């Protein structure tokens, strides 16, 4: 009886082991190898380095740049103090929430204190679903240009020109919105003057 049961189960066990080896080991190894050859930067997390070759962060994850000499990212709700890559999260506050209104009002006040006038883009005063959005709308970046230019002693037109050069178009021209990667922008900004970027 046991022999017959084993004989009946044997094909299932062999198939399970074979599928596990193929899909759990071989396939991931082949895809990883192809990615390392074809797209090494993306395959390794899109980590960017400074002029000395030291890693400064991933282009996929927002960092909390706060100094006057750098472009600030979108607000974050990831972790206790925000920008915690191990705690990706949104606020999950409803549009009618008093806490959300208070948080937005506080961010608007901060933006006004930095000299921003006119309508503020939503991405300057609201968090993203992940809390780690590495990008800003071009409008949000342009509004910060006067502050950054003043802090670095640069011409505003030069800083705006840098922003324009960093704008990424929607994928295939239709998917998504034009955006600027904040880490890439700040890295390029560091090449315009000797001022050390504040984080």
Automatic annotation (TrEMBL):
Topology within the bilayer: Single-pass membrane protein
Keywords noted in UniProt: ATP-binding, Cell membrane, Ion transport, Membrane, Nucleotide-binding, Potassium, Potassium transport, Transmembrane, Transmembrane helix, Transport
Disordered, as annotated region: 71-94
Transmembrane spans: 12-39
Chief site of localization: membrane
One of the record's GO cellular component terms: plasma membrane
Molecular function, one GO term: P-type potassium transmembrane transporter activity
Keyword Coiled coil among UniProt keywords: no
Cell compartments where the protein resides: Cell membrane
PANTHER family cross-referenced by the UniProt entry: POTASSIUM-TRANSPORTING ATPASE C CHAIN (PTHR30042), POTASSIUM-TRANSPORTING ATPASE KDPC SUBUNIT (PTHR30042:SF2)
HAMAP family xref list: KdpC (MF_00276)
Purpose of the protein: Part of the high-affinity ATP-driven potassium transport (or Kdp) system, which catalyzes the hydrolysis of ATP coupled with the electrogenic transport of potassium into the cytoplasm. This subunit acts as a catalytic chaperone that increases the ATP-binding affinity of the ATP-hydrolyzing subunit KdpB by the formation of a transient KdpB/KdpC/ATP ternary complex.
Subunit structure as annotated in this protein's UniProt entry: The system is composed of three essential subunits: KdpA, KdpB and KdpC.
Homology family: Belongs to the KdpC family.
The protein, known as: Potassium-transporting ATPase KdpC subunit
Species, as recorded: Sphingomonas glacialis
Underlying gene: kdpC
